[in-house]
Each structure stands twice: as C-alpha cells, then as structure tokens.
Write a structure and sequence with these properties.
The chain is an alpha/beta fold. It folds into two domains: 140 residues, HAD superfamily/HAD-like (Rossmann fold, 3-Layer(aba) Sandwich); 66 residues, DNA polymerase, domain 1. It is built from nine helices and eight strands. The strands form two sheets. Strands 5-4-1-6-7-8 form a six-stranded parallel beta sheet, sandwiched between helices. A two-stranded antiparallel ribbon has the order 2-3. Helix 6 links the parallel strand 4 and strand 5. The termini are close together.
C-alpha cells in the first residue's frame, strides 16, 4: 500500500476557466479591463492571495494591505458562486482514482487553493470520498513549496512517505523539499518544462498513472 498525494488545480481538475471568470468579474467591478484566459492561467499555482496580487499588478491596481484583502474577498465571493460551472476532471482522473483506491492506496490532496474552496470543488465534482486527507493553502501558516504542507499530509495519513503528483514547478519543488518522489502531469499549468524539474517521470494521461506508481 502506498500514499499518493495530488495537487488539485491543473492536476486533477481543469479549473482555470472558472478562476478566469471570477477574477475578471473582480476586475470589472473595479473598473479594469478583463485579462485573457492564458494570462490568468499563468497566475495560478501559489494560492488566491498571490493570484489576486498578480492580477492587480497586471491591471495597474495600487496594492495596499487593505485593497489586496478587499479584492481577495471579492474574488473568493465570485468564485464561490460558480466553482465548477466550466471546470471538469481531466480525462481518466475518475478511473485512476477508483483503481488506486481499489489497490489499497491512501489518497490525499495538497494544494495552495484555500481549504474551503478545495472541499467545495471536491464535493461538487463528487470525488471527495476518494481522499483520506486534504490540506489547503490556508490550512497552515505556509504554502507550497514549503514542505510543511506535505509533511502535514503524511502526518494525517499516518505514513512516512508518499508519491506526490502535480503539474507545476511549485509542486516539483514541494516534493523536492520534502524529499518525496514526484510525478509530473504535463497537461496542467506549468510554466517550466519537464527537463527543468526534479521528477521521477512525466505523464500526459491518467491511464499512464497506475503503471508509473507501481515503478516507484
């Protein structure tokens, strides 16, 4: 039996369209032009506060602690309305999760997305029951790539090691910092190519995942 820990956005779930919509609603409410899906997708990976901060910089909004906090709340409120209106599981995810659980693996989520948003996405996509532990970006005082998040997941699962699966350089660095093997999903939101990361292997479809897990 193994412990397998997943990132969420860009790894299990194609969530950027709904994040894009919520962020643009926030921007237009504040008199700014909308940003493209490509630009917003490039902002994803370091949690909501950083997402909003990047959007403020791109839109020329002056950032103070107060203005940033206000826009984080606005984005969060808009996102909560339509969390999965356009979001969906990547092809093969559901079948892979089912097979991993059937094989006796413990599964968990370790994401920089806020905990409540994460649970809402898992619930609405009806995959929450697969996971024995969930850590979000506001669950601890630190975010990925700080290894504390992954260490906390291991503690919750009562294991010493895991395989961490993600789609970005943030995830690769998290696994490296926690000294855990990393598998890179190539169809997510990474801004860095595979050969620039420390990873055991890469895969482009979840049909490939079970075979890779068995080799580690």
């Amino acid at each position: 039996m193994s412990a397998i820990v997943f990132d969420l956005d860009g790894t299990l779930v194609q969530s950027s369209p709904d994040i894009h919509d919520a962020l643009n609603r926030m921007l237009t409410k504040n008199g700014c032009d909308e940003l493209s899906l490509e630009v917003v997708t490039s902002f994803i990976g370091n949690g909501v506060p950083k997402l909003v901060e990047r959007a403020m910089i791109a839109s020329g909004i002056t950032s103070t602690d107060v203005s940033h906090a206000q826009l984080v709340k606005q984005f969060s409120d808009f996102y909560a309305i339509n969390t999965i209106e356009k979001s969906y599981l990547f092809d093969g995810v559901l079948q892979a999760l089912e097979k991993l659980v059937e094989a006796g693996n413990k599964l968990a989520i370790c994401t920089n997305k806020p905990f409540d948003m994460t649970v809402k996405v898992l619930d609405e996509l009806n995959i929450n029951h697969f996971f024995d532990a969930v850590i979000g970006g506001d669950s601890l005082p630190v975010n990925k790539p700080d290894p504390a998040m992954l260490f906390k997941v291991l503690e919750m699962l009562d294991v010493k090691d895991c395989i961490y699966i993600g789609d970005s350089e943030v995830d690769a660095k998290t696994a490296q910092n926690a000294r855990q093997p990393f598998l890179f999903y190539t169809e997510g939101y990474s801004k860095v190519p595979f050969d620039k990361m420390i990873a055991k292997a890469k895969f482009s479809h979840f049909d490939e995942l079970l075979g890779l897990v068995d080799t580690i």
